[in-house]
Design a protein that fits this description.
The structure holds two protein chains of two kinds. By secondary structure, chain A is mainly alpha-helical. Chain A contains 13 helices and two strands. Helix content of chain B is about 75%, strand content about 0%. Classes of the chains: A mainly alpha, B mainly alpha.
């Protein structure tokens, strides 16, 4: 019951946030150098007089400012993200077409980084100050400083060009004619490098967080009680420390999801992964502002959905939260 | 002095400091070391590294010296990292301080605003800002500042809230000092150390952001940067590994150095936390 109420209030907040982003987009279109109509036409060489006039009428660019704003936001609310003159398709169709690939990539990267990060963090905290700890912490520090796109390029160089173990390009083998399980296996092979390199940075973040959080919880009184009861150290770690230490990590993971979606632009660019990040990159070169803003809005929406999901998970891990609110 | 000693007794921060000083020195000496600049074509394209004494890191797709590019790239990275961090502090510190000090509706409004910016995927926002405002060094710096201030505001708010509860602030109130005077002269100076730690980590993040934007082709077209070098070499990675390898190493080293310094500062400023074995 309580969860349903919270979800409703979160959805309301989400709607307001998206509305605010739509308004922000509107101001960005007007902040761009040049006539907003030309901006929306995306400097497509094809932006002839007639098209500009149509655009002006459609967005009411000859109308007062507040009416323009209302129209722009109204379009977005009705899921009309405009038309990409470069690609000759409505922006929404372009995005929906590419969204599944991005979802597969980011969700895989998210789970890999969270599971590996927590596991490494627990391992490091269990041997704090020892060699294992130093090794894990140093590697995390290195990943933390590595640009996503560079890690991706180096992975292509090593695992694809040199060793030839994994494909370094695309979503599946073009023209392979695979279907069913064979196709799934093919996609999985293509997914490994992008997902791993996208997850590296976040793995380092979660590892550091888990380690710090484990060490902090281990100092608390109830852990001493558990120890005094004579419980095995492994049991204490798993049932008493880890469950409490996970809470801040889950919160952080939810917040970081946004960065993951942003990072996907880089990973998808390197691996020619046909998701919305790659779409954004292509639109940058084409100066296709409509599509850029559309991808921006959709990725913000993805982050909001992600945050709501984290909130629910949080409540499942820690039932106390529901009572407090 | 003891702060310095604690900072320097940490091997990590010492290493970080050494790397950072080297990067700064290289950035400052760039015009002396390579008077021809980073864009000059000096040799045939795709010269393999370690084959020519004058061009130890080889040449790129247009025959430009990779090492000269690296050296000039250091200037951009450091400049954008530093200036965008200062700008982010100029937005985040006042906003967080006012929210934490005045509370009530000021706090509510400021935090809603901050939350909004934290919800937006920040790299995507940076891309949109630079793409729409035209890629120049200024727009890149502003975009990075706009996406990096929210954590500062939250940190400063929390710090100001806790400091404002102390007795000496009550004493200052009783002494009849104005709110502004208390906030600026009594409260804020006591929140400086966590801000410094955060700032050093922010410079590192800003450098990563700048390089990522340049990698996507959103760099200032007149300025050589590490991200640009890697981005330009992306399509020839199979034949010319060194073009993307060396600039990447430069980024990793610089960012690593700043992170080490940030952690060292944190440990030096909070010795009781450091001893717990972080």
């Amino acid at each position: 019951m309580q969860i349903a109420g919270t979800i409703l209030s979160r959805l309301f907040k989400a709607a307001i946030t998206l509305l605010a982003i739509a308004i922000l987009n509107f101001f960005l279109v007007h902040a761009a150098p040049g006539d907003p109509a030309t901006v929306l036409a995306g400097e497509a060489g094809a932006a002839d007089e007639q098209m500009i006039a149509d655009l002006k009428a459609r967005f009411g660019l000859d109308q007062p400012f507040h009416i323009q704003l209302a129209r722009y936001v109204g379009n977005i609310v009705t899921l009309d993200l405009g038309y990409s003159f470069r690609q000759g398709q409505p922006v929404l169709d372009l995005i929906l077409d590419r969204l599944p690939a991005t979802l597969i990539l980011t969700l895989t990267a998210f789970w890999i980084s969270l599971l590996a990060g927590v596991a490494l963090g627990v391992a490091a905290s269990a041997r704090v100050g020892k060699f294992t700890d130093t090794l894990i912490t140093s590697v995390a520090l290195l990943f933390y400083a590595t640009p996503l796109y560079w890690a991706a390029l180096m992975a292509v160089l090593v695992f694809s060009v040199q060793l030839g173990w994994l494909p370094g390009f695309g979503y599946e083998t073009v023209g392979s004619g695979f279907s069913g399980l064979a196709r799934a296996w093919d996609i999985l092979k293509h997914l490994i490098l992008p997902a791993l390199t996208l997850g590296l940075f976040f793995m380092a973040v979660y590892m550091r967080m888990t380690r710090a959080s484990m060490l902090e919880v281990a100092q608390q009184d109830f852990v001493k009680t558990a120890r005094a009861k004579g419980l095995a150290p492994a049991t204490i770690r798993r049932r008493h420390i880890l469950r409490n230490a996970l809470l801040p990590v889950v919160t952080l993971a939810g917040l970081q999801a946004g960065q993951l979606v942003g990072g996907a632009v880089l990973t998808e660019t390197v691996f020619a992964w046909p998701g919305i990040g790659r779409l954004m990159f292509e639109s940058l070169a084409a100066r296709d502002y409509n599509t850029i803003l559309g991808v921006f809005l959709v990725s913000a929406a993805m982050v909001i959905v992600f945050n709501i999901l984290t909130d629910i998970v949080y409540r499942l891990i820690d039932p106390r939260i529901g009572h407090k609110a | 002095m003891t702060l310095w000693k604690r900072f320097l007794s940490n091997r990590g921060s010492l290493l970080g400091l050494a790397i950072l000083i080297a990067v700064i020195a290289v950035a400052l000496l760039a015009p002396v070391m390579f008077p021809r600049g980073p864009w000059a074509m000096v040799q045939r394209p795709f010269l393999v590294p370690f084959t020519n004494e004058d061009l130890p890191l080889g040449t790129d797709t247009l025959g430009r010296d990779v090492l000269a590019g690296l050296v000039y790239g250091a200037r951009v990275s450091l400049l954008v990292g530093l200036v965008s961090t200062v700008m982010a502090l100029l937005i985040g510190v006042p906003l967080g301080a006012l929210a934490g000090f005045y509370g009530k509706w000021v706090d509510e409004g400021a935090m809603r605003f901050t939350e909004f910016f934290q919800t937006i995927p920040n790299f995507a926002l940076a891309i949109v800002l630079v793409a729409i405002l035209e890629p120049t060094l200024t727009s890149i710096t502003i975009a990075i500042a706009i996406v990096s201030w929210p954590p500062v505001a939250r940190l400063v708010r929390a710090e100001v809230m806790s400091v404002t509860k102390r007795e000496y602030v009550d004493a200052a109130r009783l002494a009849g000092l104005s709110n502004m005077h208390i906030l600026v002269r009594q409260v804020l100076p006591n929140t400086v150390s966590p801000i410094i730690v955060m700032a050093s980590l922010m410079v590192a993040t800003a450098i990563l952001l700048e390089s990522s934007l340049s990698f996507l082709g959103l760099g200032d077209p007149n300025i050589m940067s590490w991200g640009f070098q890697i981005g330009a070499a992306r399509t020839v990675i199979r034949s010319a590994w060194w073009l993307s390898f060396f600039p990447g190493v430069a980024i990793v080293l610089t960012v690593l150095a700043l992170n080490l310094i940030g952690e060292g500062l944190n440990d030096a400023l909070n010795p009781h936390l450091a001893r717990k074995g972080r």
